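Before a colleague's protein record goes any further, I have to sign it off. What it holds is a sequence and that sequence's fold in token form. My question to you is simply how this chain folds and whether the tokens agree. Thanks in advance; the entry in question is below:
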Amino acid sequence: MMVLFFRAARLAPVVFDPYLSSRPLAKALMESPPGALITQGFYWKFASVFFYTGRTGLLLSDRRMNLEHGANAPGAPEVFIDDAQFKELWREPHRYYLLASQSALPRCEELVGASRLIIVRESGGKVLVTNQAGQF
């Protein structure tokens, strides 16, 4: 019985890594052409991408759901954007990348159109999309 338990414990990180880590998305982002980063939803879902890439980004989220205390502090950087700001940025000629969960894609498609969400990489129920076609 213990052998089975140790075997399962050894395999668990391999099986669950795509769901627990955003490392494949971070790697794809680092290998892609330069562009600004936007994350959808809670900061903690994609905190590892900020760690692995050393980048900063915007948060497409309501500040009440995300880092509320620091977001309202005097002098805090303006990192939160709403749907209207996202739509405006996404249609600019500059390259943007969006990190989102697969379940959030339909909402993003409603905002900017499915044809404007170009998938760069998918991993563990999360996706990295861009607003411009290019080499990935």
Observations:
- The chain has one domain: 16-130.
- Residues 16-130 form one domain.
